[in-house]
Amino acid sequence: MRRYLETIKSEEAVRKILERIRPIEDEELIPTYRGNGRITTRPVAAKYSNPPFVCSAMDGYATTFEKTIEADVTRPVTLKKGSEAVRVNTGDAMPEGMNAVVIREEVEESERFIVIRRPLYLWQNIRMVGEDIIEGDMLVPTNHVMGIFDVSMLISAGVANIHVRRMPRILVIPTGKELIDIYEKQQGTRNQEKRLIDFNSHLLAEMAEETGFQATRHPIIADRKELRDVVNRSVNDYDVLLINAGSSAGDEDYTEDIISDLGALVFHGVSMMPGRPAIFGIVHDKPVFGIPGYPVSAAISFQTFIEPVYERLTTKRIQRRSVPCFTPYKIPSRIGMEEIIRVNLQQHHGRYYVFPLPRGASIFSSMARADGLMRIPENIEGYGEDEEIECLLLKDEADIANRVHIVGSHDLSLDIMRDLMKRAYPEADLLSTHTGSLSGILAVKKGVANLCTTHILDDQKNVYNIPVIEKYLPDREVALVHIAKRQQGLIIRKGNPKKIAGIEDLGREDVKFINRQFGSGTRILVDLLLKEKGVNKESIRGYEREESSHTAVGIAVRESVADAGVAIYAVAKIFSLDFIPLAEEEYDLVVAGEFTKDQRFARLMEIIRSDIFKKRLEEIGGYKTEHTGTVKYGKL
Amino acid sequence: MRRYLETIKSEEAVRKILERIRPIEDEELIPTYRGNGRITTRPVAAKYSNPPFVCSAMDGYATTFEKTIEADVTRPVTLKKGSEAVRVNTGDAMPEGMNAVVIREEVEESERFIVIRRPLYLWQNIRMVGEDIIEGDMLVPTNHVMGIFDVSMLISAGVANIHVRRMPRILVIPTGKELIDIYEKQQGTRNQEKRLIDFNSHLLAEMAEETGFQATRHPIIADRKELRDVVNRSVNDYDVLLINAGSSAGDEDYTEDIISDLGALVFHGVSMMPGRPAIFGIVHDKPVFGIPGYPVSAAISFQTFIEPVYERLTTKRIQRRSVPCFTPYKIPSRIGMEEIIRVNLQQHHGRYYVFPLPRGASIFSSMARADGLMRIPENIEGYGEDEEIECLLLKDEADIANRVHIVGSHDLSLDIMRDLMKRAYPEADLLSTHTGSLSGILAVKKGVANLCTTHILDDQKNVYNIPVIEKYLPDREVALVHIAKRQQGLIIRKGNPKKIAGIEDLGREDVKFINRQFGSGTRILVDLLLKEKGVNKESIRGYEREESSHTAVGIAVRESVADAGVAIYAVAKIFSLDFIPLAEEEYDLVVAGEFTKDQRFARLMEIIRSDIFKKRLEEIGGYKTEHTGTVKYGKL
Question: How far is B467 from chain A (nearest CA, A)?
Answer without folding.
Answer: 32
